[in-house]
Amino acid sequence: MSVSAPKSRDAFASTLGAFAATLGSAIGLGNIWKFPYLTGSNGGAAFVLVYLLAIAFVGIPILVVELTIGRKMRASAVRAYGTVIPGQRFWAGVGVAGVTAAFLIMAFYTDVAGWVFAYVFKSFGAFLCGTALDGRTFGALAGGTWEPLLWQAAVLALTTGIIAAGISKGIEKVTKTLMPLLFILLIVCDIRALTLPGAGAGVAYLFRPDLSKLTAAIVLYALGLAFFKLSLGMGTMTTYGSYLPDETRIVPTATRVALADTAVSLLAGLAIFPAVFAFGGKPAGGPGLLFNTIPLIFSRMPLGGLFTSMFFVLTAIATIGAMVSILEVPVAWIIEQGHLGRRGAALLTGGLMFALGIPATLSQNPLLAEVKIFGKNFFDLFDFMSSNVLLPLGGLAIAILGGWALSRKDFAAEMNKGYASEPWHGRLVFGILKFLTPFLILVILLSSLGVINI
Ligand code: PHE
Questions:
Q1: Which portions of the chain are predicted below pLDDT 70?
Q2: Residue 249 and residue 19: Cα distance in Å, rounded?
Q3: 289 CA distance to ligand 1 middle (Å)
Q4: Can you give the residue ranges of every domain in the chain?
């Protein structure tokens, strides 16, 4: 966001800048923490297969609509949806649901990001002392009281500070330089994990699907992950679309973002599962999977402790780009109301998110571990409500908007900017968007509620 567009709105300077920022929002804990943990809890390759299909037939088309509507309206998500069809203000509900989702996501996201930041120091400390981290480290951290809360507060303060200062330029630069490093380190992890004896079982676990394992609930998790991963269904990508240069070709950009993001998830999976199997661990390790596995992978290598802390440093950096993009959704809306400036809006949002984050963080603590709503603790409830309910519902509305409610001509004109005539992929995405995406989301939502049986 470095060059001012007309009307003095922020804008990405180039297509490459837009690509990097969009990817910066997409890549985060979703790839390194959530993808492996959900894959492990939902039976492996069959989940991965459904996830890949969800990215192709739901994720990419919705990413295209969000970027298109954002660029067309050049406004915050709530305003963009509320005014995209004159006389139909109710679409603003998509933006309002998105703001709600942003709060729920941040409540647990900052908890996990706090664990990542803590691990940077813990692993470095262990390296200096010549010891290694083990399963007890994670249990003590996540199940503690003050320690996880302080880390969460620190992470939120950092993100709020960045948003308040509006230093997106710095963040963009840091993310752009360090993202390739994360990629390289993931490949180092992969090589180490794949050369462990017994690694093959992990690869098979990830890539040889047993479709009999699929249930409606698992399919819903895969769909929810696709939304969460590409930051969809809550206005983040609409906001980023509003900074997109006119010459950026939306369909190829969206496709590249989805491909790069998916590659990072698969690389993380290829590091974790072979190691889990080689060390005789359980794939269904839950939210602690990443934290228990990565130190183990590196512990058998020279300078392993150093690699472990580097891995968590890079993961920590990846979380910042994602968190900034989540926080920006409510902040942009609050600023638009005109009562608060950027700093006030950032502080208010960050404070509310911390309040909501406390029950999520303490849900692994004996204090709140037994408090269950719909059979889920606060952490899982916030995650479920956002990823599996609000984001798919928002996505459904967005798909209906793009495929049916907006004029096909206007929509195509914006989507295909940069081309002399409508390219084949524009027509393909539009066809999928109209005839496949909304129905897929609807069927998955209804069948997971037990309303229909497939
Ligand atoms: N895509 C981010 C990740 O995978 C999370 C995110 C969700 C960011 C929703 C913005 C909006 O970590």
A1: 1-10, 167-175
A2: 11
A3: 19
A4: 15-448
In whole angstroms, give the CA distance from residue 347 to residue 157: 9
- Rg of the chain over Cα atoms, rounded to whole angstroms, equals 21
Ligand 1 pocket, CB under 6 A: 25-26, 28-31, 105, 228-229, 231, 234, 236, 322, 325-326
State the distance from the centre of ligand 1 to the C-alpha of 319, rounded, in angstroms.
Answer: 9
In the three-class reduction of DSSP (H, G, I as helix; E, B as strand; rest coil), residue 2 is classed as: coil
> Distance between CA atoms of 188 and 47, rounded to whole angstroms?
25
Residues in the chain: 454
Dist CA 181 CA 203 (whole Å): 24
The 10 Å Cβ neighbour count of residue 49 is: 16
Q: In the numeric block, which tokens belong to residue 209?
A: 């699907």
Whether 274 and 368 have beta carbons less than 8 Å apart is answered as no
Q: In the prediction, which pLDDT does 6 show? A: 39
Q: Tokens 């995406």 label which residue?
A: 437
Give the pTM.
Answer: 0.95
Pick the CATH number of 15-448 from 1.20.1740.10, 3.40.470.10, 1.20.1250.20, 2.160.10.10: 1.20.1740.10
Spatial contact of 25 and 232, defined as CB atoms under 8 Å apart: no
